[in-house]
Amino acid sequence: MKIYDFSNGDELHHYKKALVLTFRGSRDVLSTGPDNGGFRKDLEAVFNVDINPGAGMGCVMRGKTYEEHMNVIVIEDLGLDPSHCSGLCTAASMDNVSIQTMKYEECAPFSVTAIVTAGIEHNGGRVGEPALWHETGEEFCQVKPGTINILLHIDANLDAGTLARTVVTCTEAKVAAIQELQAPSCSSRGIATGSGTDGVIVISNPESATKLTNAGKNSKLGEYIGKTVMRAVKEALSLQSGLNPKGQHDIICRMGRFGVTEDALWEYYKEQGKGTLSRAEFMDRLDRKRKDSRLVTNASLYAHLLDQLDWGLLDAGEVWQAAKELLVFPDLEKQETAEKVPEELPEKIQVDKEATIQWMIEQYVNALSYFKEI
Predict the structure, then answer these.
(1) GO MF terms on file (predicted)?
(2) Rounded distance, CA 154 to CA 111, Å?
(3) For position 298, what pLDDT does the model report?
(4) Is residue 169 part of a domain?
(5) Which of 179, 212, 243 is where one domain is finished?
(6) Is 189 found in the same domain as 328?
(7) 231 with 271, same domain?
(8) Does 189 lie in the same domain as 96?
(9) Does residue 353 contact residue 366 with C-beta atoms inside 8 Å?
(10) Count of domains in the chain?
(11) pLDDT by 10-residue block (mean), the chain, 374 residues
């Protein structure tokens, strides 16, 4: 089914769990795809395909290598010429695509369209974290549910260098969108910058009368790339997994990357002998409080203080002086809570950043356990 018409005649189709962008003329393409990746001038189509066979099921290889696997999909499912197309794969559903377009219609008109599928709830990561695998040339890494794939269509004539620069701006926009949502890494306590399998394909139009040579964020082209990609990434994450401001307004979402999870709170509750609630009763009461405005605000500020300590922007003493004020929760007498919060950091951990962070996490969990009804 055709779902979008571009200003230069190109078309976007949705079929066989794929989004296929077909060209109606010569196009310059820069792709991170395994098949025909890099800079190409001879492609006829690009695509993004969902290879997730179903919940809890692993991907079944249809070829000996990743490239062969993709070529089988291209030929048997998509009906394309494998020598003249490039594509990306994901486990995110194509039904959850976001398409965002902006047109500049004054002097040197052009358009930018971002076509994004996204999901990082199971494989979100922060750049620079310890790697999960090393390429041997013989193994295929199973795709987990997720990945942020971006098809960026630009109806303007860009030279090869400018086309490459669009990837920088596009990536900055993707990271900015994730940062604004405070999406957690699944491999550390950091904020995610993407997933380990993200991909991008940029298409420009050498037949366009508008020639642009700058895709940095100070240029109008860069601005439009930034805006369309940010909007599309946010909408796609919301559609795929409910990652949006409403969903993130939750103390577990804000502090979960530090180990403050439902399971951790329940275990602490049992260990401390705080009461006689069953797990079901405990979860019911936690669910009624986890989105409390004051609690979420305090959790957000507390998490950012931990980040600043982790990044070396504030020292342990500075962080604790501010953090302890956030542990006096509403619905409790201030004196009652204050008595539970240490005035100073223990001397033995002040020079150990990791120990300080873990101690502060424990103080947060302890203070939260005194909140009324929890």
Answers:
(1) hydrolase activity
(2) 6
(3) 95
(4) yes
(5) 243
(6) no
(7) no
(8) yes
(9) no
(10) 2
(11) 97 98 98 95 97 70 80 94 95 96 94 96 69 55 69 98 98 96 93 92 98 96 97 97 96 96 90 80 91 94 97 95 85 53 84 93 85 56
Task: Give me the pLDDT at residue 372, please.
Answer: 53
Given this model, what pLDDT does residue 254 score?
97
Dihedral pair phi/psi, residue 279, rounded to 5°: -60, -40
Residue 349 domain-assigned? yes
Same domain (yes/no): 221, 326: no
Is 161 found in the same domain as 51?
A: yes
In the block, which residue shows the tokens 């329940």? 266
pLDDT of residue 137: 55
Q: Is the dihedral of CA 155, 170, 180, 247 positive or negative?
A: positive
Q: Is 186 left (phi over 0), alpha (psi -120 to 50) or beta?
A: alpha
Could you tell me if 145 and 279 lie in one domain? Answer: no
Which positions ≥6 away from 222 have C-beta within 8 Å?
A: 169, 214, 215, 216
**CA 4, CA 289: separation in Å to the nearest integer?**
43
